[in-house]
Amino acid sequence: MQTRRFAHERGALSHWIPVDPAFPEQDRRISDYALEHEFVGTFTGSLNERVDSAPLLVFRPWTVRLERAARTEALPSSNARLLWQSDIVANGDALGVPVPTRSEWQHHVRAIDFHLHRFRSSVSVRRFAGTAQANVRILQDDFAVTLQFMSDDDRPAAVGFELEVDGFRLDLALPNAETLAGNTLPLDVLATSKLAYVRDLIRLDPDLPNDVNQFQREWLVQFLLSALLADASSTKRPLAESIADLLDDDRIEAVFGAVMNDVFGAMPPTPPDAEDTEDADAEEDPDGNGHAPDGTAGVGATGGGGRLQQALLQQLARPIVRDRLRALMPHPSRDLHGPAQSRAVRDLFQSLFIAELIHPSPKIWLFFAWISDVEIVDNSAREFAALEPDWPAAPIRLSQLLRALLTRGVQIRLVIREDGHNDYVIARLQALKARFGDQIKWTVEKSFHAKGLLGADYFLSGSMNLTLNGISINGEHLVLRTDPAVVAEQSIELESRWEGQMA
Known about the structure:
Blueprint: E1 25-29, H1 30-33, E2 34-43, E3 56-64, E4 79-91, E5 95-97, E6 109-115, E7 122-137, E8 142-150, E9 157-165, E10 167-172, H2 177-181, H3 187-203, H4 214-235, H5 239-246, H6 252-265, H7 278-284, H8 306-316, H9 319-328, E11 333-337, H10 342-358, E12 363-368, E13 375-378, E14 395-397, H11 398-407, E15 411-417, H12 423-436, E16 440-445, E17 452-454, E18 459-462, H13 468-472, E19 477-481, H14 484-498
Parallel strand pairs: 1-8, 3-9, 12-15, 15-16
Antiparallel strand pairs: 2-3, 4-7, 5-6, 6-10, 7-8, 7-9, 11-19, 12-17, 13-14, 17-18, 18-19
Helix pairs in contact: 3-4, 4-5, 4-6, 11-12
């Protein structure tokens, strides 16, 4: 089979559908957009982030109204995109194929269904867009425009199409949260996934102003990650410290500006558009120095980000953009696995409890199926004498730490499994309750399995019990999270589930 592509006119043309940049949000009737069009149906997005969106009248355009844009209306570097939605509908009865009982997939695939024309079945694939976003660039400024399609009777509409094809469906049995928590991705996959997650957080953030368009967001992601990773690599400090330092109001513009200069300075000169003329170039660069009339680097400047760099720095000067970038950055977290990292597990527990002594949380939750009065803090050299002068030069156990926290006014809550192993700790808790009263409470449950530690700004969870075997011997998994949303969610869950049962 041969594929042939040809054109009867010269290339380098920009398809222009006029919009008024003075109005950030506009409606456009389908008949004004497409001179010839065909009604396809009423579709509802059902996939990805468009699940359960409102139904739209969908029209397939056959002839679109285009105009040639003057440079005073829109530069060739203007851009726009349709926001596509998808829906897949099965037609007819599927041909089911059983999963082989000896297959490794039998635990992950519940059913396999084929929809084939050969067996009088098919799948309708629907793709449609009710919204378009544009960035209209003129010599002096950029304008962000969002356009909504409407039918001729002013009902929400979209442009799109529907195809009937063969297809198959897998009914997957996805693992639950506990199973996923116990698995570890390969380091390269984990790193790639985290980068993609951060990119999508910024690219799709609804709280960033609408005029920070997708093109600018993509560049902001690249510059932000470049600055953070370069700093963390050169200074050897944790990424969390780099985030707090580089995104500070006093540094953020200088940090981004330096990265932009490095990136744009390394870029080759941008060739002029094929349709540009000497007169047009002179209009954009009247002095012939590679700069626009406002002093910024022009289209033909050697290297340099030009107006893009200026636009990004203008966005970064806005408090709401800075605040959103800081809020969207990943909060420090850590994954630990025993017994290979038993030393790190001990260090983590010691760090958490020492931090609590220095700056106590109002309330601390400890929930472990099995719990022992284990050694938590190594005070053999009396390095924590300034915090607790009466502590001996010896390892400090959990009950001693709880006493120190109670003297600082901390509310202690524990959820423990009903098991003879836990009786010794419960006896210690009763001694503390005799002195501190309802400042410390606990409940004992017959079939309790959860494990974790929750403070005001952290949540430690996983498969580890707070016992000697759990810390030092067993192959357990721990995850420390400091994301405020995660901490708040877990706090609400514990309060609503257990506080009323405490005694």
